[in-house]
Amino acid sequence: MKFISIHTLLLLIFLFTVVTVKTYAQDKDTTANKGRWTVEGRADKITDKISHKLNLNKEQAQQIYAINEDIVRRMDVVKSNASLSKKEQMTQFKALDTERSQRFKSVFTAAQYKKWNDWEMNKKEHLEAKMEKKRQKRETKVAIQ
């Protein structure tokens, strides 16, 4: 029986580890990107959050998914339109957001719509506060320089 030298054994362990890590990283990348950032994947994620927050029934969830899919698809078109300025893009995004809100109104009950609207306002306030904090940090950085 031949003995494997310690160097050969260490080399085999190292190669096995490299192959395993590389395979895992590739699997993780393809799994993460497979459906997560597609229009359908994003619409599904948004719908799941809303459905959970508002306790939607199946029919409502299907209608909200269809609305979200349409809006996300149209937002992608706006985002990929290189001829639009940032300001024009923002204007179109706001219009699509307003349209989404109006379309949701026809699906939600009055109580659900109020809860959703309050939730959206809270998210916007939180985002504005976060943006203000970033702006203040930038101003402080510029003043120091």
Structural overview:
This protein is mostly helical and 145 residues long. It contains five helices and no strands. It is extended, with a radius of gyration of 25 Å. About 6% of the residues have low confidence.
- The overall average pLDDT, rounded, is 83
Distance between the termini: 72 Å
Order of H and E elements = HHHHH
Number of H- or I-type helical stretches: 5
Shape: extended
Question: Low-confidence runs (pLDDT<50, min 5 residues)?
Answer: 27-34
Instruction: Report helical residue fraction.
Output: over 70%
Strand content: under 5%
Largest sheet: none
Overall strand count: 0
Radius of gyration: 25 Å
Determine the structural class based on helices, strands and strand pairing: mainly alpha
Brief overview, please?
The chain has helices spanning 6-34, 39-54, 58-80, 86-105, 110-144.
Spell out the key features of this protein.
single chain; 145 residues; mainly alpha; 5 helices; 0% strand
